[in-house]
């Protein structure tokens, strides 16, 4: 220390910088030894003290080494490493660098050193054996994969580096002493390892660990990509998926490798078995901690760095295949993504990130002391003193209190994420499912739990358990089902919206439909709250049970109640869906599946809010309609980008919504009544937009693995099914003015622009206003409307002694015809009637304008319409028809028929 102070005095180092170097030397014996041994580096250190070394800066340091002889090369790369280490120690310990800079510089150092070693030895081996080539003569390169923190560009300052060596194709070198590519790259790999790992008088560069390669230490040092693929397809284990999350080619061509490994790491389906796998891995680590007495290890011990990494990576393993944003490497970036996606709460994650950075900085300080790879808190007073000086703590107890606060926070977060629900209190439920209870005892227990059909349920459980489908399940799925069924029996018994019997049977049907996918069973077993919600939803609606059975990937949506019960935000939905489509650009099949999943997920959210909250029907319809609009808008953009025949960046094309979409009254099973318009002067526009409209319609109606997007009905276009699929704005206006039937003008009262070019949308609204506002002879209009309604009744005869809410006398269609008549008859005098504000609002306006003589009657009809819609809505949820006995809804039907008679001057 005195010698260093003397050197700094001789060099006339300013007091601030002098203090920085002396502080670093007082804290780090490694730094003190390095700068006193290599005093010539002190000037360089001072010149660059306020410089942040970027990747390109680090690369530049190694350029001078490539043309040296081997001994000089090996010495030079070691000195570069120690020079950068010294630079980071001074900057970090004096508050000039943050955590991000340290790990970025260290990662850049490792990558540059690896590349320098490969580039140094490859041409020298090629001089002897020739260049490695594949069967077609293409040159081959060594691919070096950085695993762990190197792959994530978050490498520790004195860490080892986990590497895997690969090359693309088999073959041989092209020299006179030809050897196989396997032999060539094995020799090269050994040279690279020695160059980095060997300890010489000048130290080492990085300790190299190759044990993560296929078959570990027993496996070949280098693999071609075919061999890698075969290994991970046939032998890859769960912990290797975890390891490969951060795997990244740090040297050589990595595109083919990345494409090969992505499906191994990120499954197409939601993989909730990852929870159990990661929990098992953590248990193994904890056992190792105990056996090796590593309780003071801040990486592997309680509340340590590894637990934070596990939290981030379990979400990546589960959802990475579905959410490409999660296919990233750095831990902090993953946590940010989880917050942005609403998968984890922001306040808790921000606190977790603070603790993670604290632990990583502490880890670096432990390594700074003696340039050793250690995460153990020191036992010796000397090393403790070094650490306390770095941290600015007066004593060990205060430091430990601070550390334990961070470890406690991490452990709580980890335990909440990986909590394992115990089933020791489910002995009776387990015995019932396993069939180990006597019949009488089983039925008695079921009755005690509130089940009313005890005998039937016991038989159903027995038949399910012994069914061929269950007996042939893979072992993992069968284990998960055995874990889940007792939980289901307990949860169903607690239902109050329907009988426990109904709740159990409906949920059991759902489980049978998804039981071959262990991951879905794992989700429900790992998250009892999600199971409870599934049971409640199934109990409330058989339609939802069927919907989730058809789309089991939706189970994931039930995990986050914060987003599940949040009303839809159309702007946010559109941004999210647009981003997702852009991520999948070029893969039409993936885009179609993703959009269907997006629709199904949001329909489930709306249904959950419908059944679990007091959200009014109008809000449900508004949300379903807004969802359809978003999907239409993004579909127009996406399909246009995918077609090869487009002639402009954006189409001059619009989608007009009619019927329930136009009136914002969509239900869960509604199809979309739409027409297509365009306004483009290009010569080939008619052909282009006709083909585009057909593609767009196919986009909606195609049944993919993810199901159907929407059924569309295009019959309301000019000339119906015999007309062109898409019309110009001018042709549409002429048709509506000259050829359209009255029923088509009735339909346009509920139409509106929903997607595409806004200028065309404005033009449509102008046409609509003109058509609705044109004067009409009242007698003719009445005759046409009543004749159309009579034709509909003739085509749809009611069943005896029943009232069909939609088609029946005094039903919902009669209300719609009443409103449409009032609008078409009086909009010429009252412009406010042209607004598409819905039937209830229009009835109220007509009463205010005196077009309905009795405001009381208008309110009664509006209430009847609302009651009818509610009944139809609930019938859909229960999977039944909206039909009631003829003696029900008498007051509502009477109000509607009275208004009909008052307007049309004849009984209906």
Taking the alpha carbons of the first and last residues, their distance comes to 106 Å
| Average pLDDT number | 91
Give me the CATH fold name of the largest domain: Beta Polymerase, domain 2
CATH class call of the largest domain: Alpha Beta
Under the CATH scheme, which architecture of the largest domain would be assigned? 2-Layer Sandwich
The radius of gyration computed from the alpha-carbon positions, rounded to a whole number of angstroms, is 36 Å
Count of the separate structural domains: 4
Work out the helix count.
Answer: 41
Question: Which helices and strands occur, and which strands form pairs?
Answer:
Elements: H1 2-10, H2 15-27, H3 29-37, H4 40-47, H5 55-63, H6 70-93, H7 99-129, E1 132-134, E2 143-146, H8 148-151, E3 161-167, E4 171-173, H9 181-197, E5 208-209, E6 222-224, H10 225-234, H11 238-244, E7 248-251, H12 255-265, H13 273-291, H14 305-319, H15 331-340, H16 346-370, H17 381-391, H18 396-417, H19 427-434, H20 439-448, H21 454-466, H22 468-471, H23 475-492, H24 500-514, H25 518-526, H26 528-540, H27 542-550, H28 561-564, H29 570-583, H30 588-612, H31 617-642, E8 653-658, H32 659-662, E9 672-678, H33 685-701, E10 712-713, E11 726-728, H34 729-738, H35 742-748, E12 752-756, H36 758-773, H37 778-795, E13 802-804, H38 812-826, H39 839-848, H40 855-877, E14 883-885, H41 890-904
Parallel strand pairs: 3-5, 3-6, 9-10, 9-11
Antiparallel strand pairs: 1-4, 2-3, 2-7, 8-9, 8-12, 13-14
Helix pairs in contact: 2-3, 2-6, 2-17, 5-7, 6-7, 7-9, 10-12, 13-14, 13-25, 14-15, 14-18, 16-17, 16-18, 19-23, 20-21, 23-24, 23-25, 23-26, 24-26, 24-27, 25-26, 26-27, 29-31, 30-31, 31-33, 34-36, 37-38, 38-39, 39-40, 40-41
